[in-house]
């Protein structure tokens, strides 16, 4: 009997009448349940059955199986229908029997993390002309989509900031459809925020859409609350579903919208809106592309956010640990630079400090803790505070470093002790492992401590395994000064650190730095110092800091690596005459320019073409401190002066004195005179070490204009016995010192002092042969 007019036939009769089958697919067990019509459409005998996923999969075209897998995963994530066109193959997989359309609804079991698909199968005809390019059963659109996703993924992976990620997202051209309005939303407290937008003119911070409660009926807030995408294919659908916010959105004149969650590690961190000026139906393939882009966008934004947070953290850490140079120091100009280039957090163990002392002097400290990680930065902070405390107590440079090495040694010994919690458990085991790792990774630190008297220019320096300072004289000559030193801090708690005394004359500049400035770019100590010296000399000439003609850089001559003996000042320093404020300001500007030039030489474009000889180019943090003794412009000095002490117990330092004198005379016109001066200095120092019981003090000074300069060298000792000229025999091993002096020097003499004596000689650049001899 036909059904009554007011009732519907049974569902199975209706489905059979329209040739529609039912199927159920259990993802957990892999069991597929089919009714008779569904079995027929799949090419199986036409009766209800329970079969396996493998049996059903063998009936699908392989390309279509890959397509439906992605569509199902998208539907599960969005809680929407999964719709796809599928080609059914014969038993041999050689011939297409028919094309069916599948519409299924996923039922997710969240507690078991599984799902079931329940839906229909219905035979459909061939796609209409022009629609094949958009159908999932064809490969053209799929291949263009895959190429687009690869390009988009690569571009988003290379973005390093939130602004750059948004710029890349705005420039994406999706296959077949492209949004012309984009916005990324986030949440702060209980309100919606706009992270960035593109193509929405007038969508500013004061817009009502930029800050609304999360319970507002708006697609972005719904996505943030539920973590599910919202697709709006027409303005009418938008107005129907979100009538409250539609008046705020209508002014942008868009026709379709997609709001997708930005999810990272299971947490919805924001929402991405893609708006279109033309209608978009949001087919499963289009939703799949948008979802994939949203996932990549979420990952890129997450990486950029972490990187920006790390930069903000490390910048704040650096600002808190690196000092301000403070008020102007009368008689001295100071410039400093810190460039983090080491670990992933861009923070390491390099530091510098400027410490006012109770005596009125100023302490300049630079150092480098081993490593490029957070632990190195932490140790650097502790050590810097300890050094500042010891210096502020009024200790001398050697005492400051001696206390600092005991402090760091104590910190290293104490790293094996952590929490006092004795309870066993995973956390306590991790804590013990961390403590054991720190105990097996001792750290040390290099340091250079300079106590400066701004009035006299006297510098008292103690060195703990750190690179030696470089002095640029007022005429541009650059010398690496040998400084007595000891072991790096933290190695031996009982180590001693002798003090070296120098005088910084008017117009001279001292450079102290960490090894990052020297060795960055594949350089070693020798080639790195040569590069730095060239910058110092060239920058001085270009800035007009002294008035000499340009000359070619000479081959680098390195000072001996071993620590040098104690140096003393041969004369009383004169009171410093400060210059007008305008002149000192100009001098400070030139020092700042010099600091920039040094960093640019290491990190600028030219540095990539002047790499060093080392194969393993390890980058390092850079700390630079420049100290200049200021002077009046009209008193631009034309004097080079250097001092060096050779201890009685270290005769091997004579070679260092010869090398030092050659560096001082690098641009002397007559190389024979340079050889003569080196020979005479070697004889004078050797005589002091052999015939007296004291140390030899060498003072060398070059004065005058280039081409007509005078070299005066004095070697002083504490003995009152005056030398006598002898006439040694042919086989004698000594007694020729004064004879050589008389033959090679233009003038020479012996001056008694209150305690000891001074032997000196002079050479004149304008004359090639010895002149008048003074005894």
Automatic annotation (TrEMBL):
Domain of life: Bacteria
Protein name: SpoIIE family protein phosphatase
UniProt feature, compositional bias: Basic and acidic residues: 421-439, 551-577
All copies of domain PAS, residue ranges: 7-79
UniProt entry tagged with the keyword Zinc: no
Source taxonomy: Bacteria, Bacillati, Actinomycetota, Actinomycetes, Kitasatosporales
TM helices/strands, residue ranges: none
InterPro entries (alphabetical): Bact_Sigma-Reg, GAF, GAF-like_dom_sf, HATPase_C_sf, HATPase_dom, PAS, PAS-like_dom_sf, PPM-type-like_dom_sf
Record has Hydrolase as a keyword: yes
């Amino acid at each position: 009997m036909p059904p009554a007019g007011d009732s519907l036939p049974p569902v199975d009769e209706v489905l059979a009448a329209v040739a529609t089958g039912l199927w159920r697919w259990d993802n957990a067990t892999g069991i597929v349940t089919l009714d008779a019509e569904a079995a027929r459409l799949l090419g199986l005998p036409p009766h209800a059955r329970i079969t396996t996923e493998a049996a059903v999969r063998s009936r699908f075209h392989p390309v279509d199986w890959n397509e439906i897998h992605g569509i199902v995963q998208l539907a599960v994530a969005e809680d929407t229908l999964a719709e796809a066109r599928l080609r059914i193959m014969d038993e041999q997989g050689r011939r297409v029997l028919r094309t069916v359309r599948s519409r299924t609804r996923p039922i997710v079991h969240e507690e078991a993390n599984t799902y079931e698909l329940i839906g229909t199968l219905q035979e459909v005809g061939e796609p209409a002309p022009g629609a094949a390019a958009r159908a999932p059963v064809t490969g053209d659109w799929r291949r263009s989509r895959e190429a687009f996703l690869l390009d988009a993924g690569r571009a988003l992976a290379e973005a390093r900031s939130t602004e750059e990620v948004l710029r890349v997202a705005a420039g994406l051209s999706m296959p077949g459809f492209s949004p012309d309005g984009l916005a990324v939303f986030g949440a702060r407290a209980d309100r919606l925020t706009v992270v960035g937008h593109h193509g929405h003119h007038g969508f500013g911070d004061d817009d009502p859409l930029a800050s609304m409660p999360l319970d507002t009926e708006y697609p972005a807030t719904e996505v943030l609350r539920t973590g599910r995408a919202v697709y709006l294919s027409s303005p009418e659908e938008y107005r129907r579903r979100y009538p409250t916010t539609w008046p705020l959105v209508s002014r942008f004149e868009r026709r379709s919208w997609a709001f997708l969650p930005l999810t990272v590690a299971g947490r919805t961190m924001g929402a991405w809106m893609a708006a279109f000026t033309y209608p978009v139906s949001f087919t499963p393939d289009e939703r799949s592309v948008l979802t994939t882009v949203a996932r990549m966008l979420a990952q890129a934004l997450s990486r950029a956010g972490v990187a920006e947070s790390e930069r903000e953290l490390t910048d704040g850490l650096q600002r808190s640990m690196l000092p301000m140079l403070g008020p102007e120091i009368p008689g001295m100009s100071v410039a400093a630079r810190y460039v983090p280039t080491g670990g992933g957090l861009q923070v390491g163990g390099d530091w510098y400090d400027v410490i006012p002392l109770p005596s009125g002097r100023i302490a300049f400290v630079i150092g480098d803790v081993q490593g490029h990680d957070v632990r190195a930065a932490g140790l650097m902070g502790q050590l810097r505070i300890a050094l500042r405390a010891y210096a502020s107590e009024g200790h001398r440079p050697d005492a400051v470093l001696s206390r600092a090495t005991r402090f760091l040694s104590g910190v290293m010994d104490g790293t094996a002790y952590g929490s006092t919690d004795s309870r066993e458990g995973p956390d306590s085991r991790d804590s013990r492992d961390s403590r054991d790792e720190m105990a097996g990774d001792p750290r040390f630190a290099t340091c250079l401590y300079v106590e400066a008297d701004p009035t006299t220019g006297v510098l008292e320096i103690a060195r703990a395994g750190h690179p030696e300072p470089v002095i640029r004289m007022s005429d541009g000559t650059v010398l690496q000064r040998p400084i007595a030193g000891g072991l790096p801090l933290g190695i031996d708690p009982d180590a001693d650190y002798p003090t070296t005394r120098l005088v910084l004359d008017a117009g001279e500049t001292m450079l102290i730095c960490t090894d990052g400035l020297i060795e960055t770019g594949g350089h070693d100590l020798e080639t790195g110092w040569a590069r730095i010296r060239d910058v110092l000399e060239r920058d001085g000439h270009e800035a007009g800091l002294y008035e000499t003609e340009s000359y070619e850089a000479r081959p680098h001559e390195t000072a001996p690596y071993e620590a040098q003996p104690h140096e003393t000042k041969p004369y009383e320093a004169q009171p410093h005459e400060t210059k007008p404020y305008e002149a000192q300001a100009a001098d400070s500007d030139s020092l700042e320019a010099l600091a920039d030039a040094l960093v640019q030489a290491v990190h600028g474009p030219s540095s990539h073409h002047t790499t060093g000889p080392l194969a393993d180019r390890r980058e390092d943090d850079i700390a630079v401190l420049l100290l200049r003794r200021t002077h009046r412009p009209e008193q631009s000095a034309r004097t080079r002066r250097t001092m060096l002490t050779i201890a009685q117990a270290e005769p091997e330092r004579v070679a260092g004195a010869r090398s030092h004198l050659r560096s001082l005379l690098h641009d002397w016109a007559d190389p024979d005179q340079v050889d003569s001066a080196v020979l005479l200095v070697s004889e004078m120092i050797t005589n002091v070490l052999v015939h007296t019981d004291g140390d030899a003090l060498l003072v060398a000074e070059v004065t005058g204009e280039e081409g007509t300069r005078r070299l005066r060298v004095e070697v002083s000792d504490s003995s009152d016995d005056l030398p006598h000229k002898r006439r040694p025999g042919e086989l004698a091993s000594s007694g020729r010192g004064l004879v050589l002096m008389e033959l090679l020097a233009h003038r020479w003499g012996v001056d008694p002092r209150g305690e000891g004596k001074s032997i000196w000689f002079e050479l004149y650049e304008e004359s090639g042969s010895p002149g008048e001899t003074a005894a």
